[in-house]
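Human:
I keep going back and forth on a fold encoding question. Comparing notes only helps if you start from a blank page. Show me how you would write down a chain together with its backbone fold. Write it directly below this note and I will take it from there.

Assistant:
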Amino acid sequence: MPTLPAPRDPLPIDAALPELLEALRKRGRAVLEAPPGAGKTTRVPLAMLEAGIPRAGRIVMLEPRRLAARAAAERMAETLDERPGQTVGYRIRGDTKVSAATRVEVVTEGVLTRMIQSDPGLEGLGAVIFDEFHERSLNADLGLALCLEIAGALREDLVLLAMSATLDAAPVAALMEAPALRSEGRGFPVETRWLEAPVPKGRRLEEATADLVAGAVGETEGGVLVFLPGEGEIRRTEALLRGRLPADCVLRPLFGAMPFSAQRAAIRPETGGRKIVLATSIAETSLTIEDIRVVVDAGRARRARFDPGSGMSRLVTERVTRAEAAQRAGRAGRVAPGVAYRLWTKGEEGALAAHPPAEIEAADLSGLSLELKLWGADPAALPFLTPPPEGAHAEALALLGMLGALDDRGAITAHGRRLAHLPLHPRLGHMLAVAGPGAATLAALLAERDPLPRAAPVDLALRLEAVADPRRFAERRPWTPNRAAVDRIRTEAARLAKAAGDAADEALSTAAMAALAYPDRIGLRRRGAAPRYLLSGGKGAVMAEEDPLAAQRLIVVTDLDGDPREARIRQAIPIAESELRQLFADRIRWQSVCDWSRRDRRVVARQQERLGAIALDDRLWRDAPQEDVARAMLDGVRELGLPFSDAARRFQARVALGRDAGLDLPDLSDAALMATLEAWLLPHLGDIRTAEAWRGFDLLPALRARLDWAQGQALDREVPGAFTTPLGRKLPIDYSGEAPEIALRLQEMFGQTAHPTVAGRPLRVTLLSPAGRPVQTTMDLPGFWTTSYAEVRKEMRGRYPKHPWPEDPRVADPTLRAKRRKT
């Protein structure tokens, strides 16, 4: 094994190396937590190499970003007095420096997945280091899960090490079944300075950051590293700072899309001036930017989140977490004591989340799901630190099936295998694979942020025109393309054209290519004045009425604003129906549809030629079967509710009372009826198909049919629908109140010595005067005869002298007649 030169400058990580190397020798696995500036990225791989860990094979170290991977490899090679590609090399997109002599290979995280998929045994590889694992990218989580499975099934000798500055080490150590080690201390102390008051609402981030940077430059010495969320904020802050800083200050932007030469200029020492680096989170980890003594943190970070608007992951701007803020502040103490300025108050810091969420929890999972299908494993069978959410995984599988990457059984197809090897989202990979190199520019455009300002029309063709000739476009159109975005699109398009290979169909229009990528975003304009569209995936979208494409019948939508109810269209292109029929001939089918129309408040029966949720042809279905109409009407019933008549309500109440009394009867409560409509109502609907007809529907026969003969007999016996008076009259019993109730003339109850009951409960009896006015309400008729009747008789005799008022009603005959006149 090579003997390394003595370190030029001691670093905090050096003290932890013996324990780490011993753990790797004994266990083959470890989790290392080391504060920012400890030196783990460049010290640990070389220390492992010198210690003979692993015994055979290369060490591969993963870095989340290309710049960090290349810089780490160059720094380690410099330590060995070599050039990259000898003992230490790197492999990143578009640039590789490795050789047969390479023992340490620094790669970006996606490269490991490709290595594993190509060679599951990882022949010639002895150790994998997951650097900056706290960032929890999809590729890092997947890579660790695959490596753990490989180590358990094929390669017991595979050494695994997870490293981070701000990692919650315990869960990772438990997953890896490895010891958790920590390197204490940082290179130099860092003083933290907060704002005295919050940034006023409405003030732009760039303005507040520029003020803070200008103040920090005036109060400190040495280079300044400013953290901003993205390129746009960097450029605007750079413009605000020009002319405000001392003449010796040199502004250096640093973001991922820059040429590597410009990135190197930001990293290397500045000769003859004070360097002010305006950087994204690319500078958070694994990079030592020379001469930095001061950090200014704008408190924002960009994270990958699933964007319903694009159907893919997009970067969104969020508040930093406490872990990220600590990581950033540590940049100020790498080479000397430093100062960290934060664009928030100390009181606001308590509201920050502790750690950033894992990308797997919120990002689009189409690429991950495709990799899992290629690997041949269900996510539940792999040791993920955070399992993929089931809903997001199911959506991803549905999309992959739509793109032809999976067959009807859910197995990966030959086309899916090809998509897995293309450096694109599966949507765009499918488009490129089918359309060939001609789709490369469109694929690069759809993967990049819109090069035109938000005020531009939605037409996708305008974006392609701007990319083709931005100068001429700006002369002819009122919108100026973002030149940096255009340059990135062109560069990426050239790379993708080489990866495309032979096309299955090179004669496709731009609209047809877009439809390949977005088969679920083909929009059909709804009827009506407003430009509202139904998309083939079933969602709705709306376009600005003044947009030139607003009158188009069929469009392909490539970007939406993500509103879950009715998204606003941000990018689209018109498409001819003939192109759709040619592209999706195998998916366009005639369907007979019976649906309840909420707008028309009736059942609508149509025969439609459908592509997903949209109907390319729509005809009236005149002979729709009655059962289909009735089933559609059930949706109308769910909207309209049940039209109870008084008789139906009485029957419902009788059944409820019978159930309370212990009778074996079905549940006819409103909730139960609505939940079981198909079981009891469907056979009785007949040809009912409108809201008006439904309002006149008699529910009682359908409710009675819920009871069999024996149940009906038991109900009539125990909870009758009517009370038979002593005169033989049948009075409906009112079951709507707290107790069953009847009302009748007092004289009709003469001779009744027992109080009437229902289901063992006394009826509430309202006794009426001859004029039909309530005289007494009782639930104890014998008690009334004995007590209160005498008073009632005294009062009523004078008022109604023609009607009988016997002294003892218990032995009198019931009657509804008045006394006969004396002759």
